[in-house]
Amino acid sequence: MTGSFEDFRTSFSYGSRSDISFKFLKSMSDEDAAGFFQQLLIEVGAAYDTGDVSQILELAYQTQISGYEPDPEHPSRWSYEDRPFVKLPKPLNESRVGLLTSSGHFVAGADPEPFGVENMTQSEAEGRIGEFLRETPVLSSIPRNTPRDQLVVRHGGYDTRSVVLDFNVSFPRDALVAAEEAGRIGELDETLYSFPGATAQGRVKKVAPAWVEQISGDSIDVMLLVPV
């Protein structure tokens, strides 16, 4: 059974086409999305002749920006006019910095085993996104010196291929180590944290106090929060 262009456009979401780079299509109109694909094919054709794909990447990047740009006439219920503010207790170059991401990383051998499944694959996680959205997430503790080949990622809500190639895309451990070595931050904490963020906000709020209590023992001055 064939679907409409609208069905295709809105399928770029959890559990179907989970490529996070193109989820913006879901929020676009059919006309604007069609214009994007038309221009994309033009740029692909040009790349055959020139071998230069930079315009393809630029088109995808700029369309992603416009696709996610808030509509002032229809504000999102997730938009906030203000946010909590806490002044740093000391300069950043004297502060201990922590890292908490919703990227779904964990250390090999410490798999949180969602739904009791051992060695769940990324493909299976994407196929079970509906269950993840109803499940309470598990916070994984990751030593900062974890070898690259021991750092694992699995997440039902996005395509992890880029992250597998370079985990710093969503888990910027190396960037923070470099900032520490350059003296831009005082030090990076010995333990970093991650959880699969494809879950209901209400469930995160329920476990957040326990997470805060767990992390507070690290005496962190600044916590870097990295969403996916």
Question: Could you describe the 3D structure shown?
Answer:
With 228 residues, the chain is an alpha/beta fold. The chain has eight helices and seven strands, in the order H-H-H-E-E-H-H-E-E-H-H-E-E-H-E. The chain is globular and about 55 Å long. Helix 2 runs antiparallel to helix 3. Strands 1, 3, 5, 6 and 7 form a five-stranded mixed sheet that branches.
How would the blueprint of this fold be written?
Elements: H1 5-9, H2 30-50, H3 54-68, E1 96-101, E2 105-107, H4 122-127, H5 129-134, E3 140-143, E4 151-153, H6 161-165, H7 173-181, E5 187-188, E6 191-194, H8 201-216, E7 222-226
Parallel strand pairs: 1-5, 1-6, 1-7
Antiparallel strand pairs: 2-4, 3-6
Fraction in beta strands: 5-15%
Which regions have little confidence, pLDDT < 50, spanning 5+ residues?
Answer: none
The class by helix and strand makeup works out as: alpha/beta
**Number of helical regions:** 8
Tell how many strands the DSSP assignment holds. 7
| Major sheet size, sense and barrel closure | 5 strands, mixed
Through-space gap between termini: 33 Å
The Cα radius of gyration reads: 20 Å
Notable characteristics:
228 residues, 7 strands, five-stranded mixed beta sheet, two-stranded antiparallel sheet, alpha/beta, 8 helices, 36% helix, globular
Q: Quick gist of this model?
A:
By secondary structure, the protein is of the alpha/beta class. The protein contains eight helices and seven strands.
